[in-house]
Amino acid sequence: MFEEGDGSMRSLLGGKGSNLCEMTNLGLPVPNGFIVTTEACTAYNAGGKVLAQEVKDQVAQCMANLEKETGKKFGDEKNPLLMSVRSGARASMPGMMDTVLNLGLNDKATEALAKLTNNPRFAYDSYRRFIMMFADVVMGVSKHKFETAMGEYKAKKGVADDLDLDADDLKKICDIFKDVYKKNHNSDFPASAMEQLYASITSVFESWDNPRAFVYRRMHDIPYEWGTAVNVQMMVFGNMGDDSGSGVAFSRDPATGEDRLYAEFLVNAQGEDVVAGVRTPQPFGELKNSKTMPGIYDEFVGIAKKLERHYQDMQDMEMTVEKGKLYILQTRNGKRTAPAALKIAIDMVKEGLITRREALMKVDPKQLDQLLHPNFDTAALKAGKEIGKGLAASPGAAAGRVYFSAEDAVEASERGEPVILVRMETSPEDIEGMNVSQGILTVRGGMTSHAAVVARGMGVCCISGCEEIKLNNANKSFELAGNTIKEGDFISLDGTAGTIYLGEIKTVAPEMSGDFAEFMSWADCVRTMGVRANADSPHDAKVALEFGAEGIGLTRTEHMFFEADRIPKMRMMIMSDTEAERRAALDELLPLQRKDFVGIYEVMGERPVTIRLLDPPLHEFMPHEDKDYEHLAKLMGKTVAQLKAIAVSLHELNPMMGHRGCRLAVSYPEIAEMQTRAIIEAAIEVKKSKGFEIVPEIMIPLIGDEKELQFVKDICVTTADKIIEASGVKIKYMVGTMIEIPRACLIADKIAAEAEFFSFGTNDLTQMTYGLSRDDAGRILADYTERNIYEGDPTARLDQTGVGMLMKMAVAGGRKARPGIKLGICGEHGGEPSSVMFCHEIGLDYVSCSPFRLPIARLAAAQAAMDQKKED
Ligand code: PEP
Ligand code: MG
User: Is the CB of 763 under 6 A from ligand 1?
Assistant: First the structure.
C-alpha cells in the first residue's frame, strides 16, 4: 500500500509508485492504492511469463484492504470500487504503456454507479471509456475500431460533440462496444473485476517487451533487467460535472525554465482527455476565480511549490478535482528543453534550494547538444515530411540542396547555396566538400566511420548508414521511400535523431546564454579528469579552446595532407620508387607540416598537444581521376601507366588491418623522420618567437608489439635529439602510443616500458575487439539492435564489458611498468557521457573528443567525480 514506501525504494516501487508513497507520507491528497513491484516483473519475465499465484494472492489481499477502508467493493452491484492501472518503471518512460482507467466496471456495477452518483451519463461515459481502453491496451483490439463505431453512432444521431450524447446514447454505445470487442476477440468482454485486474497487470509486464520500450530503453540507457512496477490506484473522477475536472501542470515552464506554473485544465473531463488533446484545455489560471471549484487554484499552487521543494526539482504533476475536492495523481521530475534545464538548475541554486553540485547532477550531458547546434524551428518541423532514418552520427539540424560530389558541393557553396552532401560513404578526399556543407548524408557507415568522425569534428550535422537510399551517382539523384531526389533539390536532416525530411525546413541557431558559461565553470571546479580536444588545425584548436579544451589529445596529421596544394606532394611521396625520391617529396611536405604545428602551438600556448604520426593506409591518398594521374605523371616525370601500376601494387584487400599506422613507419622510416622533424622544429620556433615552453607529445599509432614501438620510437628520438642539439634550444618532448589493438592491452606492461603515455583509440580498439568494421557497422548493427541482440551501438557507446575489460588491463599493465604514465582516450567515446564516466572510473587522466562535444565531456566528468565521491 502507498504509505509503506518512500523515495529510497524507487528501484523496487518504480518512479511513479515511490512518488505516490512519498506524497502520501507528505500528507498530500493522493487516492490510495498499492504497487506490484519491479521484482514481480523480473520474476514474470524469468518465470515463463505467467503471473505467479503469490502475486495474485497479494493483489487480492490489497484489494480486500482497500475495500475495507472505503466500504466499497470491487466489481460490486451496489457500491462498486473502481481502480486505475498504470506502469511505472524506475526511470520515467513516458508513453511506454497507456493507462487503464475505470477497472471494475461491468453492466451491473455501471448501473449501480449511475444510481449512487445520480448521474447515469457519467456512469455510462466511464463504462464506454473503460471498454475501449481495456480492449485496446490490454487485449490488443485497436481503439480505432471503437472510435469508428462511435463516429457512426454520432453521425446517425447528427451530433458532432461527445458532450451532445446523453446517458441513453452512451448506454447504447457501451452495448455496441461490447459487440465490437466480441467480434474482434472471439469472447465476451470480461465482467469479472479481478480478471480485469490480473489481465491489466500482466499487460503492463508484457509492455516492458514491446518495441517502443526497447527503443526508449536503448535511447536512455535503461537496462532490461530493471523491469517495471504496476501502480493500482483508486479512481477519482474528473468527469462528474462542472465542479470536477482534470489537469496537468509543470511547476516551472518546461520550454524556457521560467519560474511560473505552467498548467492546463479541462472541466468535466478525465486526465486522458487533457493528454490526448480531445478538447482544448483552458489555462489553469482561469480557475483562480472559479465559482464551481473555489480554492482549488490556491491549494494546487501550494502543493506544486511543496513538491518542488521536496524533490528539489521542477515537477510534472497530474491532478483531478472530483466534486470540488483536489487529488494529486502523480508527480515526477519534469522533462524540459536544454535551455530550461540550465535555467532551472541555476535559478534553484540562486534560490538556495539546491547546491551547485546538485545543480550539476540535474542536467543530462547529452542534452547540452541542443545548445551547441542549430535545431529545426518547431512550427516548421510539424509540417515536415519524414522520408527516412539513418544513424544520428553528428547532431544538429540542417536544410540544403543536395549535391553528390565534394567538388559540386564546393561550387554550390561558392554560389551561396546551402548544401547537403550525399555520398555512398565519405573519404578524406571529400574534406573540402564536407566543410562547406550544412549537412552530410551517407548510405553506408557506422558511428565511427569517416563521415561521422569528421562531421563531429567540424560540428556539421551528419546522418550516416541510411541503407534504404538507392544512390544513382551517374544520374545525380537518389531514391528514398518512393521519392526521387535530384541534384539541387532541398532536403533537411536532423542529425540528433537521424531523421531525413523532404524539402526545406527552417532551422534556428542555438542560443548560448550566460547561464551556459556559468554552469560549465561549476562543472570544471568539480571534475578531476582532464578534457582535451581532437583538433587537426589551428582553426580547430581555436574552437577547442572556446569549448573549454585544456589541451589537444589527438592531431590526425593525415587530414593536413588533403588540401589542394598538398595532395600532389603527398602523392609524389607515395608514388616514389626509391627512398631518395621519397625523401625529396618529403622535403617539400616538411615546411607545410611544420607551419601547421607552429599554428597549433601558437593557439594552444603551453597546453599539451599530442600529435599522431601518419596513420591511414597510403592508398587513401591515391588519385582517382585520370586528370589527377596525368598531372602527377607530369610532376614526377613518369608515365600514367607506371603510376597506375604503383597504385595497383599498393592496393590492399583489407586496408584497415593492413599497411597503416606504425607499420608505415617501419616500412618507410623517412616519413616518421620528417614528421618528427616538423613537430620538434615547430616547437623550437614557437619557443623562440613566443617564449612558450612546449612539450610536444609524439604519438605512434596502431602499436601491437613492444619491438615495433621500440623501432619507431628510435627514429623519433634520434631525429628529435639531433635537431634539439643542433638548435641549442632546450626542449622536452614525449613519445607515447595509441592503444587500439587488443594485443597492446594484453602486453601493456611491455609497451609501457617504451611509451611515456597511452591514448586509447577506442574506435579501432572497438573495431578490432568485435572484429566489426567501423565503416560498415551501421548496416550490420541495425539488424542487431532490431533483434535485441545488442542494446546499444558499441561504436558510439563504449562496450564496458569487453572493450572496457581490455582497457582496464592496459591501465593496470601500464601503471605497473611506469607508475606515472599519462593515460587518456581519443576515440569518439571520449565525448559520450557513459563512456566518459567509465574513463573516470578506471582512472584515466583525460578524455579527448571533438571540440563540439567538449561541454558534454566536461559535465559527464563532473558527474562521474561526484558519483565517485558519494560512493567513497
Ligand atoms: C581511434 O582509433 O580511436 C582513433 C582515435 O583513431 P582513428 O579514428 O583516426 O583511427
Ligand atoms: Mg585509430
Answer: yes
Q: What are the catalytic residues?
A: 450, 826
Query: In the beta sheet, which residues pair with residue 352?
Result: none
Hey, is 101 helix, strand or coil? strand
- Ligand nearest to the Cα of 536, by number: 1
Whole-number Å distance, alpha carbon 761 to ligand 2 midpoint, is: 5
Beta strands across the sheet bearing 282-283: 282-283, 262-267, 245-250, 315-322, 325-333
What three-state secondary structure class fits 322?
A: strand
495-540 pLDDT, tens digit per residue, is 988 999 999 999 988 766 788 999 999 999 999 999 999 999 999 9
**pLDDT (mean) for 416-432:** 90
Q: Report, in this order, helix, strand and coil percent for the chain, each rounded to 5.
A: 50, 15, 30
Question: How sure is the predictor about 114, in pLDDT bands with cuts at 50, 70 and 90?
Answer: very high
Q: Which atom of ligand 1 is nearest to the CA of 554?
A: 5
Per-residue pLDDT of 182-215, as tens digits, reads 999 999 999 999 999 999 999 999 988 887 788 7
Tell me if the pTM is above 0.85: no
Is the CB of residue 761 below 6 angstroms from any atom belonging to ligand 1? yes
Q: Which residues contact 713 (CB under 8 A, 6 or more apart)?
A: 700, 735, 754, 755
What is the structure's pLDDT at 4? 63
The Cα 712–Cα 867 span in angstroms is: 41
Q: How many residues can be counted in the chain?
A: 872
Sign, CA torsion 64/54/201/307: positive
Distance 466 CA to ligand 2 centre (A): 24
CB 461 within 8 A of CB 438: yes
- Within 10 angstroms of residue 717's Cβ, the number of other Cβ atoms is 14
Q: Tell me which amino acid residue 326 is.
A: L
767 pLDDT band, cuts 50/70/90, is very high
The per-residue pLDDT for 453 is 84
Contact 675, 613 (CB under 8 A): yes
Q: Which grid cell is 496?
A: 540528433
Residue from 558, 763, 773, 839 to probe ligand 1 pocket by mutation (most atoms less than 8 Å from CB)? 763
- Which residue has a Cα nearest atom 9 of ligand 1? 556
Say how far apart CA 238 and CA 320 lie, in whole Å. 5
Give, using CA atoms, the residue closest to atom 4 of ligand 1.
761
User: Half-sphere exposure of 18 toward its Cβ, with a 13 Å CA cutoff?
Assistant: 20
453 within ligand 1 shell (Cβ under 6 A)? yes
Residue to mutate, 447, 657, 703, 764, ligand 1, most ligand atoms under 8 Å from C-beta: 764
Cβ 615 under 6 angstroms from ligand 1: yes
Residue 702 CA, ligand 2 centroid: distance in Å: 7
Question: Which residue CA neighbors atom 8 of ligand 1 most closely?
Answer: 763
Residue 554 CA, chain-centre distance (Å), reads 24
- The answer to whether the CB of 556 is under 6 A from ligand 1 is yes
Q: How confident is the model at residue 260 (pLDDT cuts 50, 70, 90)?
A: very high
- DSSP readout, 733-769? -EEEEEE-SHHHHHTHHHHHHH-SEEEE-HHHHHHHH
